[in-house]
Design goal:
By secondary structure, the protein is α/β, with parallel strands linked by helices. The protein has eight helices and eight strands, in the order H-H-E-H-E-E-H-E-E-E-E-E-H-H-H-H. The strands form two sheets. Strands 1-2-3-4-8-5 form a six-stranded mixed sheet, with helices on both faces. Strands 6-7 form a two-stranded antiparallel ribbon. Strand 3, helix 4 and strand 4 form a beta-alpha-beta unit.
Length: about 325
């Protein structure tokens, strides 16, 4: 078991690309494809091969935080595969994941190396997209692996065989009890960069590749730079969130004060009216009592006073 300082997490962009997009590590990508898509990848052509020069270009062109598919490959000259790691949720993630999957499908249109005949549409190949997520995407269940394809649910028919569009969402934050054994090993690997000794050899190798001692000096410098950029990005986002929360809190206080003043006025007016009515009733009672006493002193009987009260002749 290694300390956290000895390994680079697969969430690091360089580490992810080095493991899954290097020509010398195709056997690891083959294992990933087999475990998640049940496809035997006899031949793999990586379309975006990893290189330290390529990583330098991404950083120099400030594309680090752009949405770039981390791994893209052609399998057996028959289908395309893409894999991407997402650390945190954001608005329109569903739409974005669909966009990149369908964009991968249509981007092959007219490619001479993929055309099976004179028709350009013959170059369109099935696409398999793997989204590895370090957050809960499907909020209403505890299932860590969801697979989607174009399917007629009413008649139980696939649009095409094999399905032209295949999208998998692998949520690392959910329980592993419903995963296959190999997918459990992958989950452990993606979460902490380590695997059990019982894991297949290709997953063990994936963990060994990202040990710092197995990286070149330039790669280690790049890893540190990417980690610092990620921390800076987190700090900026945290500051922006805190500023927005404080602004919202202050606006809430101002609005609350305004509403409180308005409500206080309304309650004051209402209370004043009620108190005024009560005072009027009390004054009326006192005035009526005074007139009754005055009549008694003048010698009127109780029955005569009651009769006058009934007729309203006393003015109370």
């Amino acid at each position: 078991m290694h300390s956290k300082k000895d390994i680079v997490l697969p969430t690091n962009d360089l580490a992810f690309r080095k493991v899954f997009a290097s020509n010398e590590n195709k056997h690891i990508l083959k294992g990933l494809i087999k475990d998640f898509f049940a496809i035997e990848a006899l031949d793999i052509k990586i379309e975006t091969p990893y290189s330290i020069e390529g990583m330098n270009k991404i950083i120099s062109e400030k594309k680090f935080f752009e949405t770039i598919v981390d791994v893209a490959a052609l399998i057996n000259d028959e289908l395309g595969v893409s894999a991407e790691f997402q650390l945190s949720p954001h608005d329109f993630f569903t739409e974005r994941s669909l966009y990149y999957t369908f964009n991968k499908f249509v981007s092959n249109y007219g490619r001479k190396d993929l055309q099976k005949n004179a028709l350009k549409y013959s170059s369109l190949l099935p696409v398999y997209s793997l989204n590895i997520l370090k957050f809960d995407f499907f909020k209403n269940d505890s299932i860590p692996l969801h697979k989607f394809e174009l399917y007629d649910f009413e008649n139980h028919i696939k649009l095409w065989e094999p399905s032209l569009i295949n999208i998998v969402y692998f949520e690392l934050t959910k329980p592993a009890d419903k995963l296959s054994k190999n997918n459990c090993f992958w989950r452990q690997y993606f979460l902490n960069g380590e695997v059990s000794r019982e894991a297949p050899k290709y997953i063990v190798e994936a963990a060994q590749i990202i040990e710092k001692s197995n990286l070149t000096k330039e790669e280690r410098k790049m890893v540190d730079l990417l980690e610092k950029m990620e921390e800076d990005h987190k700090a900026i986002m945290s500051y922006a969130l805190r500023e927005a929360q404080e602004k919202g809190l202050e606006e809430g206080r101002i609005k609350g004060r305004e509403e409180g003043i308005k409500r206080g006025r309304e309650e004051g007016i209402k209370r004043g009216r009620e108190e005024g009515r009560e005072e009027g009733r009390e004054e009326g009672r006192e005035e009526g009592a005074g007139k009754v006493i005055e009549l008694l002193e003048k010698g009127y009987s109780i029955e005569e006073i009651k009769a006058m009260l009934k007729k309203g002749s006393l003015g109370v």
